[in-house]
Amino acid sequence: MHDAHPGNVNIKIRPLLPPIVLISPVGAPITAPLVPVEFQLGDMIVNMFVDDGTNETLFLQMAVTLKQQAGMGIKFPDNTFELTLGDTFVHIYVFAEPLMDWDNSLFEDVAPLLVDLIMPVVSDLLGSIQLPTFDDFGYTVWENRAMGPSLDYVGIFMDLNPPPPGP
After folding, report:
1. Strand partners, 18
2. How much of the chain is helix, strand and coil, in % rounded to 5?
3. Distance (Å, rounded) from C-alpha 111 to C-alpha 115?
4. How far apart are CA 13 and CA 111, in angstroms?
5. Is 156 exposed, middle or buried (0-12, 13-18, 19+ CB in 10 A)?
6. Residue 20: phi, psi to the nearest 5?
7. Average pLDDT, stretch 101-123?
8. Rounded CA gap, 136 and 68, in Å?
9. Which is more confidently placed, 45 or 79?
10. Model confidence over 4-41: pLDDT tens digits?
11. Which range, of 11-25, 35-49, 78-92, averages the lowest pLDDT?
C-alpha cells in the first residue's frame, strides 16, 4: 500500500553573520515615545528538506537577508515594554532547487510579499509586557530616548516610588 503523505518538511537555518540591532538608525520613521531600532539578519542560509522518515532530501536552498524596523521602549504611565514593528525589507536568493525546475525569480519576488502579510500578525502577537516591580517599590517611567555620542544607546528614565507606609 502506498502512503500518500510525503513526510515532514524540515527547515534548517544557518546564519553566516550575527544579528545586529541598530539603535536610532538614520531615516527611522518611528518617533517618541518609542526609540527607533532596526534588527538586521544578514545572509542566513535556509535549507528546506522533505523527510520521509528514513531520508532527508533537499528541495530548496536559499540565502535570506532581513531588515526589520521597529520602535521599542517603555510606555508610560502604565510601565509596559512595547515593541512596535515597522517596515520589513527581505531579500531572497534561491540558489538550489534540485527536486523541481521553477522560475527562481517568481519565488524571490513572492516570498517578500508573504513576509509583509505575516508581519502585522506577529506585531499583534507581541503586545505589551508589564515590567516587574522591585519588592514593594513602584516606579514611574517618564522618558526613553536614544543616547550617547552616536545615539546608539537606549536611556530609560524613571522615578522610584517608596512603598506605602505600613499599618
Report:
1. none
2. 15, 55, 30
3. 6
4. 16
5. middle
6. -125, 140
7. 76
8. 38
9. 45
10. 556 788 889 999 999 888 887 776 665 667 888 888 98
11. 78-92
| Closest listed residue to residue 157, CA positions, set 44, 38, 74 | 74
Q: Is residue 44 a contact partner of residue 12, using CB atoms and an 8 Å limit? A: no
**What span, in angstroms and rounded, lies between the C-alpha atoms of 34 and 45?**
32
Cα 118 to Cα 74: distance, rounded to the nearest angstrom: 25
Query: Which residues, including other chains, have CB under 8 Å from residue 103's CB and lie 6 or more apart?
Result: none
Half-sphere CA count of 133, side-chain side, radius 13 A: 9
Mean pLDDT of the chain: 80
- Domain boundaries defined on the chain: 8-161
Q: What is the largest CA-CA distance in the chain?
A: 77
